[in-house]
Design goal:
The protein is mainly α and about 180 residues long. It has one domain. The protein has 6 helices and 2 strands; from the N terminus they run E-H-H-H-H-E-H-H. Helix 2 runs antiparallel to helix 4. The longest helix is centred in the middle third of the chain and has 36 residues. The radius of gyration is 31 Å and the shape is rod-shaped.
Length: about 180
C-alpha cells in the first residue's frame, strides 16, 4: 500500500509552512505597530506654542539673525495654522496606517487561531494514480477515531511532478 496515516492533527500541524508564515506576519506587524502608536501619541500630544522672546535675549538675537537671513533669502516662516494642518495630516496618515496594520493583524491572528483546530486526519499518498482511491480508502477506514459509517470531509492535492511534490512538502505535512 502506498498510502499511510500521518495522525490526527491540527490544521497547523498539517500545514507547518502556514504556521511559520502566520508567525512571521504576526511578529512583523506586532513589531511595527507599537512604533506607529508611539508616533501617533506624540503627534496627538504636541501643543504648539508661541515663542517667548523675553525668556532669553541670547535666543532672541540668534533668532533675529536667522530671521534676517531668511528674509534676505525670501523664506517665510510657516504659520501656526500651517503647522497644525501638517500635524493633522500626519495624524490622519498614521491613523490610516495603524488601521491597515490592525486589520492585517486581525487576519493573521484569526488564521493562527484556525491553525490550532484539531481533528484533521492526514493521509499521505505516493504511488500509482490508479491505486489512489483504494489505498487512501483502506487507510481512512482504519484511522483511529474514524468509523466506516462516519461522515467524512476531505481535500486532496495531487501532483505527478516530483518538483511540485517537493514544494508541497515544504508547506504541507507529507510524512510522519
Amino acid at each position: 500500500m502506498t498510502a499511510r496515516y500521518l495522525g490526527s492533527l491540527s490544521i497547523g500541524d498539517c500545514i507547518p509552512g502556514a504556521a511559520a508564515v502566520a508567525a512571521a506576519g504576526s511578529a512583523g506587524i506586532s513589531a511595527v505597530l507599537p512604533t506607529l502608536n508611539e508616533q501617533l501619541a506624540g503627534l496627538l500630544a504636541y501643543q504648539p506654542t508661541t515663542i517667548n522672546f523675553a525668556a532669553s535675549i541670547a535666543q532672541l538675537e540668534t533668532m533675529i539673525s536667522a530671521l534676517k537671513a531668511s528674509i534676505v533669502l525670501g523664506v517665510t516662516p510657516p504659520s501656526l495654522a500651517t503647522q497644525l494642518a501638517e500635524i493633522a495630516a500626519k495624524v490622519a496618515s498614521l491613523q490610516a496606517d495603524i488601521g491597515g496594520i490592525q486589520a492585517q493583524l486581525s487576519i493573521v491572528t484569526a488564521f493562527q487561531s484556525a491553525l490550532g483546530a484539531a481533528g484533521v486526519h492526514a493521509v499521505a499518498f505516493d504511488g500509482l494514480a490508479g491505486n489512489f482511491g483504494a489505498d487512501v480508502g483502506a487507510v481512512v477506514a482504519t484511522a483511529p477515531g474514524v468509523g466506516p459509517t462516519d461522515r467524512a470531509h476531505g481535500i486532496t492535492l495531487l501532483t505527478t511532478v516530483p518538483a511540485t511534490w517537493a514544494l508541497l512538502a515544504t508547506i504541507f505535512r507529507v510524512s510522519v
